[in-house]
Amino acid sequence: MHKFFNFDREPDFESGEILLIDKPKDWSSFDIVKKIRNLLSTYLGKDKIKVGHAGTLDPLATGLLIICTGKATKLIESIQEGEKEYEAVFRLGAITPSYDMETEISEEFDYSCITEEMIINTAKSMEGISFQTPPIYSAIQINGKRAYEYARKGKEIKLDKREINIPNINIQKILIPYVNLIITCSKGTYVRSLANDFGKKLDNGAFLYYLRRLKSGNYSIDNAIEMKNFEEFLNKM
Prior knowledge:
Helix content is about 25%, strand content about 30%. It is an alpha+beta fold.
C-alpha cells in the first residue's frame, strides 16, 4: 500500500501524495478535487498540478474520498479496484426517482407487514455475485453526457446491468422503517440501487437515507483528514 499523507512529515505533492479526505455532505467529489487543486496551486506557486480522485462519492454521501496528486495519479486505477465498505441506512416504505434523498418521495407503501426476520433474510439473499442496474441519477456517461443530466430533464434512458459482488451485508440495527447496515461490496456497486432492490425483494419500497464510506481497498476513514485541517496545514507551511 502506497503511503498516505499525514501531518507529521513534509509532503511532496508533485512526486505524489495520497490524501485520505473525510468528504463532507453536499460536496461533490469534483468539488473536493477542484478545491485541493486550487490550494496546491497557491501553495506550490504553479498553475498546473495533477489532482484526481480514486472513486466517486455522491454529494449527499460522506466519508472516505481518496485524492491523488502529482505522479500518484497513476495509481488511481489500481486503488479504485479495491473493495469498498459503507455504513448505510435504508428507509423502507417509500421510493424516490434517484433511489436516495436527492429527489422527493414518489410513492409510498404500507410497511406494517415487514418483520425483522424478513429484513434479515433479505439482506442475506443479496450477498454474493449478482447483476445490478445503476440508478439513472448517476455519473455514468452516455453519449458524452452524465446520466443524471438526462434524468434531471425527465428524459428516459436505459442503463445496462453490471456484475457486482457483495461479500457481506451486516445489519447493525433495525428500527422500522429504518435499517442500519454495514455493506462490503465490489467496485462499481451503487448502494442506492441496493436500497431500491432491497425494497423490491420485500415486495415494498426502500431508498437510501444515509451513506458513509468507511473503507476503500486498504485505506480507512480512520486515517482520513478534514478539508479545513488540510487547508490550515498548507497555510502554516
